[in-house]
Amino acid sequence: MNCLCKLCLWKSGKMLLALFVLDWLFAASTDATTHEPGFSAPIANVTAPLGREAILACTVHNLSTYKVAWLRVDTQTILTIHTHVISRSRRVGVTHSDHRTWFLHIRELRETDRGWYMCQINTDPMKSQLGYLDIVVPPDILDRGTSTDQTVREGAPISLTCAATGSPQPQITWRREHPKGTKAITVADGIQVSSYEGPVLNISRVTRQHAGAYLCIASNGVPPTPSKRIMLTVQFPPVINIRNQLVGAALGSELVLECETEAYPKPVSYWSRDNGEIVPVGGGLEPQKIDGSYRSVLRLAIRRVTSSDYGTYKCVSKNSLGDTEGTIKLYPMPLPAMENKNVVQRLNIMADKSSESTPFGTQDFRLQDFNRAVSKDQCRYGFLFSLVILIKIATSRG
Question: What's the pTM?
Fold first, then answer.
């Protein structure tokens, strides 16, 4: 009986020992799993502008004696291990916060830095996670592929192009430059818009109204936003516009004949008489030109009209594409109306004859000053005009 009891106790002891060993092994395994290194959060993707600094963060726990390394995925290049920089690039650096968050620094960013980066813990097997670095690049308008200043004949088609690089890919906007603000762009079917989107601006039939400065603007949300100014010059033969083709003037008066010309290339413009003689500069005739971009105003000032000034004047304009002319006819007008008060006729006749009494009243033959002295031609004209009046008065009273 005693032997049987001892045998039972011995078997019970072995079982308890086995249970204790299993419990220890299980506890050890659980402890090893619980305290093994790992990642606390995924790596956040980073977007940074060209030339600046980018920082990627990798957060771990239970690192203990294990090490964290950063690698460039596409080139399989080890950049850092623990606190040591392995890369030969001076732009790469590594820092940490209490061995929990490990930061990869890349300074003076280049477009080639864009890509995937790996944070790795040297466990067995190795643990790792990835983060992406994107580089944004401000727009740059390329000389190659972008139009320079253009010159085109009126009526011909033209295409203005604008090429730009950047990341993200830039969007191209066209606007017209004008001193008073935005000027409309005329596109297909005569439709006018304040701006036009697209790398190519097509004008199917150019008119002189299309001439001027066009701005190509490239934008992708990354400052700065560049633009390029493209001048469009339209060539066309001269066109003349004369507002008054018949002009009347009294002897001794002043006047200005005027005509407007539009042309490009810049025309040679001048005044001539009906006999083809070019009006010279100086004397009583003074040609003037007031130039704009395409428009010129040609003026001919006559200081004091004489009888020889009456007749036809031609405004002539010529350039390499053609020539044209417009005419103005200058004709005589009567002198200013005379005063007839108290039967006294103030007649502007002769400067050297005094007044005298007649059956019809007192005739004042002294020179009357109409704001300026008059020429002999004007005196003769006034004398004839006065004789007609006197004859009519005598006839009516007879």
Answer: 0.65
